Amino acid sequence: MPQQFGPEYVRAIAPYQAGKPIAEVAREFGLDEASIVKLASNENPFGVPESSKQAMAATLSELGRYPDANGFALKAVLSKRYGVSPDWITLGNGSNDILEIAAHAFVQGGQSVVYSQYSFAVYALATQGVGARPIVVPAKAYGHDLDAMAASIEDDTRLIYIANPNNPTGTFIAPSEIEAFLKRVPAHVVVVLDEAYNEYLAPEQQFESSQWVRTYPNLLVSRTFSKAYGLAGLRVGFAIAQPALTDLMNRIRQPFNVNSLAQAAAIAALGDKDFLAQGAANNAAGYRQFVEAFAELGLEYVPSFGNFVLVRVGMDDSAGARINLALLKQGVIVRPVGNYGLPQWLRISIGLPRENALFLAALRKALA
Ligand SMILES: *Cc1c(COP(=O)(O)O)cnc(C)c1O
């Protein structure tokens, strides 16, 4: 038997399955890269905001130096936007970093972490990465069952992850339900409220969860620049929480976890209201384009509050993989979610109208 390295809990981790890169699909299926449509990773179809490009260009000459380890300028803008003092903010190399830092800061090997079935894959990675025990609570209608999650908390539970809206299912939890949940969670258990898709919520669904951190010292709200702000490749996210939590997060994070370009681009994007508005409008229109077609095709889908839709493409457990392959052959990359325990489903990110139409045409062919 070959030498085995590392602890058992690390060997037990299933590698994260990212969306297939365009170049790889082009090579594998003999396609022209330019003809490929990628709707697999919930990226912003408008790409990087112009304002961020300019800010990055102005930062290039500074790249010989280390980034600002405390992200002073970015925290100042975030602090103003969210009405919290800068020491309530932690920056992350993407919000994945925030999720992982939280596990390292608040959980010890052997203790338990609660999250929902069908919630973001990184919660399992972060939990297993510190040798903690996952308590995976069965989903209700493909979303979080907060009552069951509250009931599942054990004496050794130290952390709970909640995604709202959730990925990959797109479900949304009303603010009143989250607050009722927060009231039930013991004071020593940290709740990470992951709001990666917050900016896609319609105005009537928006609520300022960042203000809850004043009331709940065990709450950490996580946000990202990867989705609505169009900066996925730069890796920048942030968390808002009281200093008792952020202080520990800041000790455990890498000192230079957010690079200079990312800090500059994020500041510019935060002020770019037009870019966000354009993205939200495109997303709402694309969502209608998708669900009207799914209804016409008789396909079940989970109503989504994010920039993607989960759709059931068949009733047998090979349906997701089969339709995914048929789409890849036509140059359309979407996300199979068999690794989430949803082998009959595919997750499709909402793109530009033309990309959505190409996907729907390819889907019709794949189903025929
Ligand atoms: C995309 C996503 C994130 C964001 O990840 P980044 O590391 O910020 O790119 C976080 N949580 C969920 C649920 C997501 O879907």
UniProtKB/TrEMBL annotation:
EC annotation from Swiss-Prot or TrEMBL: 2.6.1.9
GO molecular-function term, one example from the UniProt record: histidinol-phosphate transaminase activity
Pathway connected to this protein: Amino-acid biosynthesis; L-histidine biosynthesis; L-histidine from 5-phospho-alpha-D-ribose 1-diphosphate: step 7/9
Signal sequence, start to end: none
Pfam family, one: Aminotran_1_2
Keyword Amino-acid biosynthesis annotated: yes
Required cofactor names: pyridoxal 5'-phosphate
Modified residues (N6-(pyridoxal phosphate)lysine): K227
Gene3D superfamilies: Aspartate Aminotransferase, domain 1 (3.90.1150.10), Type I PLP-dependent aspartate aminotransferase-like (Major domain) (3.40.640.10)
Hydrolase recorded as keyword: no
Reactions that this protein is recorded to catalyse: L-histidinol phosphate + 2-oxoglutarate = 3-(imidazol-4-yl)-2-oxopropyl phosphate + L-glutamate
GO biological process: L-histidine biosynthetic process
CDD domains for the chain: AAT_like (cd00609)
Top EC class, one word: transferase
UniProt-listed PROSITE patterns: AA_TRANSFER_CLASS_2 (PS00599)
Alphabetical UniProt keywords: Amino-acid biosynthesis, Aminotransferase, Histidine biosynthesis, Pyridoxal phosphate, Transferase
Annotated Aminotransferase class I/classII large domain residues: 36-356
InterPro entries: Aminotrans_II_pyridoxalP_BS, Aminotransferase_I/II_large, HisP_aminotrans, HistidinolP_aminotransfase, PyrdxlP-dep_Trfase, PyrdxlP-dep_Trfase_major, PyrdxlP-dep_Trfase_small
Superkingdom of source: Bacteria
Family, similarity comment: Belongs to the class-II pyridoxal-phosphate-dependent aminotransferase family. Histidinol-phosphate aminotransferase subfamily.
Record-linked NCBIfam families: hisC (TIGR01141)
Assembly mode: Homodimer.
Name of the protein: Histidinol-phosphate aminotransferase
Organism expressing this protein natively: Massilia psychrophila
Lineage: Bacteria, Pseudomonadati, Pseudomonadota, Betaproteobacteria, Burkholderiales
Protein's gene: hisC
